Amino acid sequence: MTAATPLLPGMPTDDGAQPVFREPWEAHAFAMAVTLHQRGLFTWPEWALALAGQIAAAQAAGDEDRGDTYYRHWLAALEALVAAKGASTADELARYRDAWDRAADRTPHGQPIELRPRDFG
């Protein structure tokens, strides 16, 4: 059996050469984009355009496009599209991202991360 070629060079694959997520957050970002699309926040062509624009901007800034940054572009495109659609602001997204970072930093490995009011400091 011949293995399929990964979608992007450097993207991880399973034993059957199917693309897989490197980290849980990548799967979560993927699921958020699909869910927001299904709920009507944006069309799939709008999503494709936002993601393509994010990747093009990253490449113009020097991203070598080895596949290891794909979901970082995915998340950046999702944040920009959510802000552009008025579902949240860029400031609010940054505030929550920073709060989750603080919560994760204080949480021992393997324990659930809990957001607390002080994380928004």
TrEMBL record:
Recorded coiled-coil stretches: none
UniProt protein name: Nitrile hydratase accessory protein
One of the Pfam families matching this protein, by short name: NHase_beta_N
Source domain of life: Bacteria
Species whose genome carries this gene: Variovorax ureilyticus
Listed InterPro entries: CN_hydtase_beta-like_N (IPR049054), CN_hydtase_beta_C (IPR042262), Elect_transpt_acc-like_dom_sf (IPR008990), Nitrile_Hydratase_acc_put (IPR023808)
Nitrile hydratase beta subunit-like N-terminal domain boundaries: 17-99
